[in-house]
Design brief:
The protein has 104 residues and is an alpha+beta fold. The protein has a three-stranded mixed β-sheet with strand order 1-2-3. Helix content is 41%, strand content 16%. It comes from Triparma retinervis. This is CRAL-TRIO domain-containing protein. Residues 37-102 form the CRAL-TRIO domain.
Length: 104
Protein backbone atom coordinates (compact mmCIF):
# COMPACT_ATOMS: atom_id res chain seq x y z
CA UNK A 1 0.00 0.00 0.00
CA UNK A 2 2.74 2.44 0.98
CA UNK A 3 4.77 1.67 -2.14
CA UNK A 4 1.71 2.27 -4.34
CA UNK A 5 0.98 5.63 -2.64
CA UNK A 6 4.61 6.73 -2.80
CA UNK A 7 4.86 5.77 -6.48
CA UNK A 8 1.72 7.80 -7.22
CA UNK A 9 3.24 10.75 -5.33
CA UNK A 10 6.48 10.57 -7.32
CA UNK A 11 4.52 10.34 -10.58
CA UNK A 12 2.47 13.38 -9.59
CA UNK A 13 5.66 15.36 -8.77
CA UNK A 14 7.08 14.55 -12.20
CA UNK A 15 3.83 15.33 -14.02
CA UNK A 16 3.42 18.61 -12.11
CA UNK A 17 7.03 19.70 -12.73
CA UNK A 18 7.58 20.27 -9.02
CA UNK A 19 11.38 20.32 -9.32
CA UNK A 20 11.17 22.94 -12.07
CA UNK A 21 8.87 25.09 -9.93
CA UNK A 22 11.24 24.81 -6.99
CA UNK A 23 14.19 25.87 -9.14
CA UNK A 24 12.28 29.04 -10.11
CA UNK A 25 11.88 29.85 -6.40
CA UNK A 26 11.16 33.42 -5.38
CA UNK A 27 11.72 34.73 -8.90
CA UNK A 28 8.31 33.29 -9.73
CA UNK A 29 5.33 35.66 -9.85
CA UNK A 30 3.42 33.03 -7.86
CA UNK A 31 4.72 34.51 -4.59
CA UNK A 32 2.69 37.71 -5.08
CA UNK A 33 -0.37 36.52 -3.16
CA UNK A 34 1.82 35.12 -0.41
CA UNK A 35 3.62 38.45 0.03
CA UNK A 36 0.34 40.36 0.12
CA UNK A 37 -0.80 38.37 3.14
CA UNK A 38 -3.57 36.34 1.55
CA UNK A 39 -1.85 33.06 2.44
CA UNK A 40 0.95 32.74 4.96
CA UNK A 41 2.51 30.52 7.61
CA UNK A 42 1.93 31.82 11.14
CA UNK A 43 3.56 29.96 14.01
CA UNK A 44 2.75 26.45 15.20
CA UNK A 45 -0.15 24.84 17.05
CA UNK A 46 0.12 23.10 20.44
CA UNK A 47 1.44 19.93 18.79
CA UNK A 48 4.21 21.78 16.90
CA UNK A 49 2.47 21.66 13.53
CA UNK A 50 2.91 24.75 11.32
CA UNK A 51 -0.26 26.86 10.92
CA UNK A 52 -1.29 27.97 7.43
CA UNK A 53 -3.58 31.03 7.43
CA UNK A 54 -5.66 31.69 4.34
CA UNK A 55 -7.39 35.06 4.11
CA UNK A 56 -9.79 34.53 1.23
CA UNK A 57 -10.99 38.14 1.36
CA UNK A 58 -7.48 39.31 0.42
CA UNK A 59 -7.18 37.05 -2.63
CA UNK A 60 -7.69 38.48 -6.09
CA UNK A 61 -9.66 35.65 -7.69
CA UNK A 62 -9.91 37.47 -11.04
CA UNK A 63 -6.20 37.03 -11.76
CA UNK A 64 -5.55 33.80 -9.90
CA UNK A 65 -6.62 30.89 -12.11
CA UNK A 66 -6.75 27.34 -10.76
CA UNK A 67 -3.54 26.13 -12.46
CA UNK A 68 -1.65 29.12 -11.05
CA UNK A 69 -3.16 28.52 -7.62
CA UNK A 70 -2.04 24.89 -7.65
CA UNK A 71 1.51 25.94 -8.54
CA UNK A 72 1.41 28.52 -5.73
CA UNK A 73 0.36 25.90 -3.17
CA UNK A 74 3.04 23.46 -4.37
CA UNK A 75 5.69 26.10 -3.67
CA UNK A 76 4.11 27.00 -0.35
CA UNK A 77 3.90 23.41 0.89
CA UNK A 78 7.39 22.49 -0.31
CA UNK A 79 8.77 25.48 1.61
CA UNK A 80 7.17 24.38 4.88
CA UNK A 81 8.14 20.72 4.45
CA UNK A 82 11.79 21.80 4.44
CA UNK A 83 11.54 23.52 7.82
CA UNK A 84 9.15 21.20 9.67
CA UNK A 85 10.67 19.72 12.83
CA UNK A 86 11.61 16.06 12.78
CA UNK A 87 8.61 13.86 13.52
CA UNK A 88 6.05 16.49 12.46
CA UNK A 89 4.18 15.29 9.38
CA UNK A 90 1.07 17.48 9.36
CA UNK A 91 0.11 21.14 9.41
CA UNK A 92 -2.98 23.04 10.52
CA UNK A 93 -5.03 25.18 8.13
CA UNK A 94 -7.08 28.19 9.28
CA UNK A 95 -9.34 29.56 6.53
CA UNK A 96 -10.54 33.10 7.20
CA UNK A 97 -13.57 33.83 5.05
CA UNK A 98 -14.94 36.62 7.26
CA UNK A 99 -14.01 39.35 4.79
CA UNK A 100 -14.95 37.33 1.71
CA UNK A 101 -17.73 39.10 -0.24
CA UNK A 102 -20.84 36.99 -0.81
CA UNK A 103 -20.40 37.29 -4.58
CA UNK A 104 -17.21 35.22 -4.40
Amino acid sequence: YALKKFSAYISWRIKSNVEELLSEGQSSDLSTEFLEGAVYWHGVDTLGRPILWENFGAMDFRNFDSARKIRFYILLFEAVYKVMPEGVTQFTVVADSKSLPYAR
